[in-house]
Amino acid sequence: MLSSVIVEKNWGPLMRRSAILYFICLLALSASACHLFTTTTQAPTAQDDPFFQEKPVEDEVFRILITEDEYILRQVSANDLIYAKPDPKAQELSHKLFKEYNQKWNFMDSNHEGLLRVKLNPQTGLIENVDYEGGKSPRAWQASIMFRDDLLRYKFGFKAGIVQPREFKVRYQWRINRDPSLSPEEAKRKAMEFIKEQKI
Questions:
Q1: CA of residue 88 relative to chain centroid, distance
Q2: Residue 123 lies in a domain
Q3: What are phi and psi of 173, to 5 degrees?
Q4: Which of 49-63, 99-113, 186-200 has the lowest mean pLDDT?
Q5: CA-to-CA distance for 66 and 70, rounded, in angstroms?
Q6: DSSP-derived 3-state class of residue 167
Q7: Are residues 69 and 30 in the same domain?
Q8: How many domains is the chain built from?
Q9: Is a pLDDT exceeding 80 seen at residue 25?
């Protein structure tokens, strides 16, 4: 009888802890599901980087800022028609590649920018073609390829069930800050390596 009482006393707190953990897991799964099945892409806010505050050019729908610490996507127009489907894992892998180049190119402050035009298949909504808008490709060929490859991974959803817009523009800015710990000699060596790579 005594052992039964002890078991009941111990079982009560254990059940409460289990119930709390179960509730926390449900909340986490719910949040994850909401993130994966969202039908909007965040618009710029007043707290965002000034890059997102600039007026969109004609047909520009998405804008992406990449730094060593962040990969930020914002939708600057056509919010009632289209959205970018979230893919956190693919975004993490893509950002990892940019971070690797950050370590190679951090001998000076620099911005790499590109404006790309996307063409979608009218039936599937999948990307058919990506090209740089005339004269709007990055000077570094690696950045040019990386922007294009990053954009090609995207999939889009459509608010009205119709593939619209079929063509639109996406602006990239990749911001690299100089590493203050680099000596002048180290910075010079990295700069020379960068110049040699651009001639390949």
A1: 8
A2: yes
A3: -135, 125
A4: 186-200
A5: 6
A6: strand
A7: no
A8: 2
A9: no
In a domain, 171, yes or no: yes
d(CA 101, CA 143): 9
- This model's pTM is above 0.70: yes
DSSP-based three-state secondary structure for 45: coil
Residue 156 CA to residue 150 CA, distance in Å, equals: 14
- The C-alpha atoms of residue 98 and residue 146 are separated, in whole angstroms, by 8
- Write the pLDDT tens digit of every residue in 57-116: 999 999 999 999 999 999 999 999 999 999 999 999 999 999 999 999 999 999 999 999
Together in a domain, 90 and 128? yes
H-state helical runs in the chain: 2-36, 88-105, 141-152, 184-198
CA–CA distance, 35 with 82 (Å, rounded to integer): 16
Task: Tell me what pLDDT residue 37 has.
Answer: 52
Same domain, 116 and 73: yes
What percent of the chain has pLDDT above 70?
80
Q: Is residue 45 part of a domain?
A: no
The amino acid occupying position 65 is L
Range of the domain at 68: 50-198
Say whether both 23 and 89 belong to one domain: no
Pair (69, 125) in one structural domain: yes
Q: Domain check: are 33 and 103 in the same one?
A: no
